[in-house]
Amino acid sequence: MVQKIIRIEGLECNHCVVRVGRAIASVKGVVEVDVNLENREAVVNFEEVRTDLRKIKDAIREAGYKPI
Ligand SMILES: [Cu+2]
User: What is the distance in A from the centroid of ligand 1 to the CA of 58?
Assistant: First the structure.
């Protein structure tokens, strides 16, 4: 298991937090995600053998936000 912090541009409200949180959680291999509105970042725990940062960032983009 690995933990990464991803900064996300475009998070404006709790609706965004829920949306992007669901998008990240839907990636197979993601075990836990916590999106923080104040910091504009997501703390993601995932299994490296099942997914990677690129796939998680793709899911964030598909939800309409910009991972940094
Ligand atoms: Cu919003």
Answer: 19
Question: What confidence score (pLDDT) does residue 37 get?
Answer: 98
Are 7 and 67 in contact by the 8 Å Cβ rule? The answer is yes
* Percentage, residues of the chain above pLDDT 70: 100
In the block, residue with structure tokens 């997501």 = 42
What's the 48 CA to ligand 1 centre distance in angstroms? 29
pLDDT band at 51 (very low <50, low <70, confident <90, very high): very high
| Fold held by 2-67 | Alpha-Beta Plaits (3.30.70)
Domain boundaries, the chain: 2-67
Q: How far is the CA of 20 from the centre of ligand 1 (A)?
A: 10
Half-sphere exposure of 50 (CA within 13 A, CB side): 11
| Predicted local confidence at residue 30, as pLDDT | 98
